[in-house]
Design goal:
- By secondary structure, this protein is α/β, with parallel strands linked by helices.
- The protein folds into two domains: 182 residues, D-Maltodextrin-Binding Protein, domain 2 (3-Layer(aba) Sandwich), CATH 3.40.190; 145 residues, D-Maltodextrin-Binding Protein, domain 2, CATH 3.40.190.10.
- Helix content is 37%, strand content 16%.
- The protein has a six-stranded mixed sheet with strand order 8-7-6-9-5-10, with no helix packed on it.
- The longest helix has 30 residues.
- The radius of gyration is 20 Å and the shape is globular.
- The chain starts with a strand and ends in an 8-residue tail after the last helix.
């Protein structure tokens, strides 16, 4: 059986074996289309271009909550980040601590994207800053946004301004029209990279911009130790029509991604062992790094997944907390 597959790029060691053919699902011939996630998710939500693909977890549960049953989730989680560390601030905007985000003008590529959901949820639960206390400016236009394909409207009490086509987050940050942005997706090669994001300014090299958290590693460790949550960004989906016609394909695809993840973990452990034997990391660090950093499956990620569904509900993106049983294929629920 041939299936059209799209995952982000071949730079992710946990998906590269799928992309380069080192690992293949039993009985399935995958036809690969690597894309930037911004374009991939829009094409999936709008046109259903691929049989199997990565998917924004936030957009997936929003679509499901609205009755769109085109997709079945697979508990494969290709990317994790501590998204509060992606918040970029103007150093002259009076933001000296997370609590200072209240009352600020804040950019966001797309209000419903998973990274933004996590950042707003963490700002609220960890630092007491609710989304209603910020004014948002969204870069992506309805025609090519995830929200345009899932019926996004700003939640009650939240101001979400549409950035006009002639400008973007980067230009507004440089002009002092924004105080911060929840994340920044510069696109210096617009015609060739993706169809969605349009900022091009190099804020990372500009002296007046920096991260909200000056020590991102310390903040990520603090949050993980407190919550046991390593935020998930993307899951995988398979078309419901494919899963219903070929139910065996669901676990075969999951098995292949688990195998690819195990390969990446073995490679990571080789590096950890080298640094330990060279005396470059302590025994405590070695012991911690020997633990698997990323695991697929619902059981290993339940706390994180349930926090994501809670944040989505709190932020008005879904009318209810979406049960995981509605998101993922039934055959994967015990995985």
């Amino acid at each position: 059986m041939k299936l059209q597959l799209s995952i982000a790029t071949d730079t992710n060691p946990r998906t590269r074996p799928i992309m380069d053919g080192s690992v293949s699902p039993d009985g399935i011939d995958l036809i690969h289309t690597p894309l930037h996630p911004s374009e991939m998710f829009w094409r999936q939500l709008k046109f259903g271009d691929f049989d199997v693909s990565e998917m924004s977890f936030s957009s997936l549960i929003k679509a499901i909550s609205a009755g769109n049953d085109q997709w079945v989730g697979l508990p494969v989680f290709t990317t994790h980040h501590f998204f509060q560390n992606w918040i970029v601030i103007r150093k002259d905007a009076g933001i000296n601590r997370p609590e200072d985000m209240a009352g600020k003008r804040v950019g966001v590529p797309e209000f419903q994207q998973t990274a933004a959901v996590w950042s707003r949820g963490i700002l609220k639960h960890e630092f007491g800053v609710d989304q209603t206390e910020m004014e948002f400016f969204m870069e992506r236009l309805p025609k090519t946004s995830h929200g345009g394909s899932t019926g996004f409207v700003p939640p009650p009490g939240v101001t979400v301004n549409q950035i006009p086509l002639e400008t973007n987050i980067g230009e507004m940050m440089l002009a002092g029209e924004l105080d911060a942005t929840l994340l920044y997706l510069p696109n210096p090669n617009l015609p060739n990279r993706n169809l969605i994001d349009r900022s091009t300014a190099d804020l990372a090299s500009h002296p007046n911009f920096g991260p909200l958290f000056p020590d991102p590693a310390a903040e990520g460790l603090r949050y993980y130790r407190k919550t046991n949550i390593y935020p998930i960004n993307h899951a995988m989906v398979i078309k419901r029509s494919v899963a219903e016609e070929h139910p065996w394909a669901v676990l075969n695809v999951l098995k292949a991604f688990n195998q690819a993840n195990e390969m990446a973990n073995r490679q990571r452990l080789e590096h950890v062992d080298y640094y330990h034997k060279s005396g470059l990391i302590s025994q405590d660090a070695y012991d911690a790094l020997c633990e698997p950093l990323v695991r697929h499956g619902i059981a290993a990620n339940r706390e994180t997944l349930e926090a994501a569904t809670q944040f989505s509900y709190e932020q008005g993106l879904t009318p209810r907390r979406v049960p995981l049983e509605e998101v993922f294929a039934r055959s994967t629920l015990d995985q």
